[in-house]
Amino acid sequence: MKALVFQGTGRVAWQDVPDPAVKDAADAIVRVDAVTLCGTDLHIVKGDVPEVEPGRVLGHEAVGTVMETGGDVRAVRPGDRVLISCISSCGRCRFCREQRYGQCRGGGGWVLGHLIDGTQAEYVRVPFADLSVHPVPSGVDSFDAVLLADIFPTAYEVGVLNGAVRPGDTVVVVGAGPIGLAAITTARLYSPGRIIAVDLDESRLSAARRLGADATAAAGEEPEQLVADLTDGLGADVVMEAVGVPQTFEMCTRMVRPGGRVANIGVHGKPAALHLEDLWIKDVTLTTGLVDTSSTPMLLRMMAAGRLPTAELVTHRFELGQMEEAYDVFGSAARTGAIKVALGGPQHTAVDTAPATGTG
Questions:
Q1: 297 and 210, same structural domain?
Q2: Do residues 159 and 263 touch, judged by C-beta distance below 8 A?
């Protein structure tokens, strides 16, 4: 089959790799029908995630069709259309029992496209299939559903829930990329008084306004002053960091009010300063987190009911074989205006399930 393979810092290639095979009785082999790229994939390519080794098939988000299952799989069967979660869950360890699937110690957590081969391929082996894939309702389009594999549960759980957004709050989202826009969309479920979006790119700020941001500020337009002006100098109740660089993290800690909450969502590849000389007296709550995807079934129900707008986020579509072009477009968002790219191509009817010889 063909797959997008990480070849070392700055290099990926769409190339032939061995077909996946069932290795454990809890596995499912899924044909990839719709897949997307994530900002975390760009961090991997930049070398920010050293655990990802050259030769790894990237990707952790997809919708596809189950082709084969191991003997222990009960929740899905061949022919089912499923959402592949970015997080795999063993279901048995302490963290899985607490629904903290992102911290799974039984072989799950964020493994796809990280520690095992991922979804940016024609086929993928999904471990712990009973708990790691979700049947897609018949009325939900695959290219909409794929956004629930990662960005929507991440924004909702790590941003909105960790940030404890409440009715009437002033919420600031720093970074209006896919995660930030999903954070704006899901924060609105809690009726905040005001949402302010901050980004470098005007096209993303325009998207933020369309999705419900009440005010926007370009990074060069003194966003901290805007927040102060709109809150009578108090600061925001909730600030979400959705970029992953030191400057934006430190900006978030300056914009939060005493007693407020800073929810870090961004993937950081470099140290950021924590200015406790200013924060120690402010009663600020700072949260970090990897998504658990415990909210995915609820989000799927909301999407099926038409309560979760997603069409705004997919700006570019490609066939599966255009993976390298899609990376170029997504990685040059300032030039291309890309928010989220989605790929899906010619369908296949069979998969060679002979034992794989790759890293799997």
A1: no
A2: yes
Q: Which two tokens stand for residue 37?
A: 């790229």
At residue 268, φ and ψ (nearest 5 deg) are -100, 130
Residues 56 and 27 in one domain: yes
* Cβ-contact 180, 155 below 8 angstroms: yes
DSSP H helical ranges for the chain: 39-46, 94-97, 129-132, 142-145, 151-154, 178-187, 202-210, 223-230, 246-255, 276-279, 296-304, 323-331, 333-336
Residue 356 placed within a domain: no
216 domain-assigned:
yes
Mapped onto helix, strand or coil, the DSSP state of residue 40 is helix
pLDDT-derived band at 351 (thresholds 50, 70, 90) equals: very low
Q: Tally the domains of the chain.
A: 2
pLDDT tens-digit profile of 184-203? Answer: 999 999 999 999 999 999 99
pLDDT of residue 345: 63
Q: Span 20-30, mean pLDDT?
A: 98
Give the CATH number of the domain where residue 104 resides: 3.90.180.10
Q: Domain range holding 252? A: 153-287
